[in-house]
Amino acid sequence: MHLLENLRAIHTETTAIRRDIHAHPELAFEEHRTAALVAERLEALGIETHRGIGKTGVVGVLRAGSSTRAIGLRADMDALPIQEKNDFTHHSRHPGRMHACGHDGHTAMLLGAAAHLVSNPDFDGTVYFLFQPAEEGEGGAPAMIADGLFERFPMEAVFGLHNWPGLPVGQIAVHRGPVMACADRFDIEIRGHGAHAAMPHQGIDPVLTGAALVQALQSVVSRNVDPQDSAVLSLTQFHAGDAYNVIPEVAQLCGTVRAFRPEVEARVEEAMQRVCTGVAAAFGANINFEYRRGYPATINSVPEAEFCAAVAKEICGDANVTVDPKPSMGAEDFAYFLQEKPGCYVWLGNGPGEGGCTLHNPHYDFNDEAIPYGVAYWVRLVQRWLSDA
Predict the structure, then answer these.
(1) Domains of the chain, with CATH numbers?
(2) Which residues contact 376 (CB under 8 A, 6 or more apart)?
(3) What is the spatial distance between Cα 107 and Cα 77, in angstroms, rounded to a whole number?
(4) pLDDT per residue over 54-76, tens digit each?
(5) Which of 16, 63, 294, 370 is spaced 20 to 30 A from 211 at the CA atom?
(6) Closest to 270 measured CA to CA, from 383, 186, 349
């Protein structure tokens, strides 16, 4: 019997776990109930379990055979600060918190894979099941790394997956290189000289300076980045003043930068600083530019990506595996794991992306029909990587 068909037998149980997690979402580093559920499930399976890795992270250790080879499989556990608008029975029980990105599904699928591998230990080596906290902007991956993840659980490579609305169920996408972009932030303070709005010549207008700066910053990508590279610079906030007849003292601009290559990221930052300096001089204002690096770009190593594509084709069929689709300008802290170890992060089809099924949407729900494909992918990845042949 094909592995995928075999795994349909645990579909009901895995779906129940997924929906239970969905109904009880927890935010970054607050995943106490979820982490306890994961740990108790692993322990019930007889898997060596370590709690509190990176605050609320959990690591399960499963060994078979005699090989010293080892790999890591990662699932994220945290939810988002979103008010859920679904009314199905497993909707969030906690106002203002929601699993709007499918981490409930990721966690359930990895637990499903652990259960199957315990019952069918047809591999030679060690599997580390990495249940990570705080993916949504708070840096759970670097927290686990700082807590000695790779020293305590030495692995050759690390693998991750994310459900992907818009990609049909039963399909997997694999990138040989960049998958997701970096996610940097910037704050710009423009300090002028306040004045009466009827007497603007007596002041230095930070609003006018800011308007010119917004325009000038739009040239950074178009005139400093190679057209064959990709980058995004978006200004998302402009704050100034609180009266109709007062030119304010200060204006503030904020936004984000996305890129796939570190050298492009650095070039954008340098150009932004240059533009801020020039606009400040032109308008006689003082501009303070603060650029903060966020999650780095998620970049798969090519050999591991090609290995994962071969595994995906075994599960889904050649026609249902896309290699090297366009990467996403979204960000993912799995990137930190890939800076430490070779590995690959794939997209698992979650079905249509229209009408509220998109990620971070208050109507989103993980598609339970994708569960067998995700579990089968994890199982076959372990079997092939840690082959006892």
Answers:
(1) 3-180+299-385 (3.40.630.10), 183-295 (3.30.70.360)
(2) 3, 4, 7, 315
(3) 6
(4) 999 999 999 999 999 999 999 99
(5) 294
(6) 186
